Each structure stands twice: as structure tokens, then as C-alpha cells.
Amino acid sequence: MRKERYREKIEYIIEAINEIPPNPERPIEVSGTFYNLLTAIESAMDISAMLVKDFGKRVEDDYGNIEILQEIGVLDGELAENLKMCNGLRNWLVHRYNRVDKELVLSSVEEVKEILTKFIKRVEDVLEKAEL
After folding, report:
1. What's 108's domain CATH number?
2. Which of 69, 80, 85, 93 is deepest in the core (most CB within 10 A)?
3. Residue 82 belongs to what domain range?
4. In the annotation, is 95 catalytic?
5. How far apart are CA 113 and CA 20, in angstroms?
6. In the chain, how many domains are there?
């Protein structure tokens, strides 16, 4: 069932962000933090694409999907902009643009966790009300 797939993605995000150590210092901890951030954000983007499709809209790239979800009222403007910021961070981590600024990424961890937690809450509210 589709709701089960949403649930799996949500559980993965929660697990990934909860596994991030509070003050990663060793290289393995930093790499693990980067990986968990990247995959948690990627799962949020997967959920966004699923919602777009399930609301009968055409799936686009990650930024386009976020905009569609805002247009149809699933996301408010602030959460949409914050998710775009998270996706930019994910892209930066994936492609290692200009060698990732470790301190910048690590200083973003708590903000990203908060954004993803708000996103999960919103998705759960939508799933509860919708026939998806």
C-alpha cells in the first residue's frame, strides 16, 4: 500500500537524523553525519515526488516538486523555502562542490533536523486527511 511506502520513508528520515552524533569530530563521524543528512534529505525529496504524483500532478525535479506542493497547499511558503535550502545542501554534499565546507555543513545540522521534522509532521497531517 502506498501509505506504507510513505511510512517507510518517514521512518528512515527519523532514524537517519537521530543517528547523527551531537558533536561529530572524528572523520568517520563527520562522514556519517554527511551521509545521514544527504539520505534523509533525499528521502524527503522522494516523499515530495510521491505526493505530487498522488495529487495527480506531473512530477518534476526536486525544486519543482516543492513549488507544486506549495501551490496546492501542502506546504506553506516558509517550509517550501526551507526544503529548497535542504535540497541545495544535499546537492552540495552529493557533488562535493568546491570541497565541502565541513564547518558550514555541521553548523546546519540542527536546522536541517528541525526542517525535516516539520516536513514529516506536515506529511503525516496530509496523509491522515487524504485518500493516498
Report:
1. 1.20.120.580
2. 69
3. 2-129
4. yes
5. 10
6. 1
Span 16-44, mean pLDDT? 95
Q: Which of 90, 96, 99, 122 is catalytic?
A: 90
Q: Degrees (nearest 5) of the Cα angle 50, 113, 3?
A: 25
CB-count exposure of residue 108 (10 Å: 0-12, 13-18, 19+)? middle
What's the pLDDT at 97? 54
Chain position carrying cell 525529496 = 45
Q: Which of 95, 96, 99, 122 is catalytic?
A: 95
Per-residue pLDDT tens digits for 90-129: 988 887 755 667 888 898 999 999 999 999 999 999 999 8
DSSP letters for 65-98: HHHHHHHTTSS-HHHHHHHHHHHHHHHHHHHTTT
Is residue 99 flagged as an active site residue? Answer: no
